[in-house]
Design brief:
The chain is mainly beta. Helices cover 10% and strands 42% of the residues. The longest helix is centred in the middle third of the chain and has 9 residues.
Length: 349
């Protein structure tokens, strides 16, 4: 059975290809050294149009009546909230621009706006050397170092000096743990359930935040902050696995990079990268379950635990809940061997 692979490695070769979703212009060359936040390619986002139906929005019957209510002209640039049309009178009704843009047409009581679009900037995501150019699309970048992959990220990229607040695998971070001394740092912390932690980290600001786990209700706040946030284990209160704990706790005051993007279709995971001046091999992205593999357990009651596969059970196994599924015997320690569905295992490489 094909196994999902998650990388928690003290030293490996890291090779990442960054590509634009549309054709654009590559801004780097082969052999160039880049930082994680450097732009490697840019593209113009296709034009998007917005239809503002004044007649319907103001409850008017005739298009001519709606056009008389429009107080703007073709070619005008608008900001979000600018008035497009109003009825006037004591109980005036108003229609406003939903976002920034330019009016390109007024016809039949409708206003068509062309939305403003900033150029799309593709960032390197890792510090390293450009080894290949993909014309009009992007580049491939390589580096060597430690690599820890997580399960969720807010899509941002950042880099900085690592400060470790994580004193134990099941630690929790609170607002009082973050102070002015951490300004400009990438902070590794424990479980977070307080939105004020994320908000205050943005005010300092931090350059990145690594969390062991997080409550799901913090997703809107985590997505809104302007620094990268990655979650290593998942949602709920989940302790950090031993392998990641060892790597993070021995890497304080090192320069690190965070890429908090996630794309299951391309097997992209949020990543913490710690560059190191040593060479290594590139790890495989896919493998098959086999005895002696180190694995991390995803399902309760052993979520986050690391063990070693003793054997892959033949056929299917009946679990205590009555389900029959492919499973493996996993050794957690010298005295504990448990039966775990293969669907709840990730191979650590």
């Amino acid at each position: 059975m094909l196994a999902p692979v998650i990388h928690i490695l003290g030293l490996t070769n890291i090779r990442r290809t960054r590509l634009l979703p549309v054709s654009g212009k590559v801004a780097v060359r082969v052999g160039q050294r880049v930082n994680a936040s450097d732009v490697v390619a840019t593209a113009n986002v296709p034009t998007r149009h917005i239809l503002v139906d004044v007649r319907r929005g103001l409850g008017m019957i005739r298009a001519g009546e709606a056009e008389r209510a429009i107080v703007r002209m073709e070619g005008e640039k608008l900001q979000p909230g600018d008035v497009i049309a109003e009825t006037g009178g004591i109980f005036s009704r108003v229609m406003r621009a939903p976002e920034a843009g330019t009016i390109v047409m007024i016809s039949g009581g409708r206003v068509i706006m062309e939305a403003e679009s900033a150029p799309l900037e593709l960032r390197a995501g890792i510090p390293g050397v450009v080894t290949e150019i993909h014309p009009d699309q992007g580049a491939t970048i390589e580096t060597n170092g430690a690599l820890i992959q997580g399960v969720w990220g807010n899509g941002k990229v950042g880099e900085g000096l690592l400060f470790v607040l994580l004193q134990s695998p099941d630690a929790t971070i609170s607002r009082t743990d973050i102070d002015i001394s951490l300004r400009g740092a990438v902070v590794a912390a424990g479980h977070c359930s307080d939105p004020d932690v994320l908000r205050y980290a943005a005010e300092l600001p931090l350059r990145g935040l690594i969390l062991t786990s997080m409550t799901a209700d913090l997703l809107p706040v985590a997505n809104s902050v302007n620094y990268p946030v990655i979650v290593l284990e998942g949602f709920g209160k989940i302790p950090l696995n031993d392998a990641a704990m060892r790597l993070i706790s021995t890497s304080e005051k090192r320069d690190v990079a965070l890429t908090a993007t996630i794309n299951p279709a391309n097997s992209e995971r949020p990543e913490l990268i710690i560059p190191l001046p040593a060479e290594s091999n590139t790890p495989p992205e896919m493998t098959y379950f086999a005895p002696e593999q180190m694995v991390r357990i995803q399902g309760d009651p052993y979520r986050g635990k690391i063990g070693v596969i003793v054997q892959i059970r033949p056929g299917t196994t009946t679990l205590p809940n009555g389900l029959r599924t492919p499973a493996a015997d996993v050794r957690l320690d010298k005295e504990t061997v448990v039966i775990i569905p293969l669907a709840n295992l990730e191979v650590l490489m």
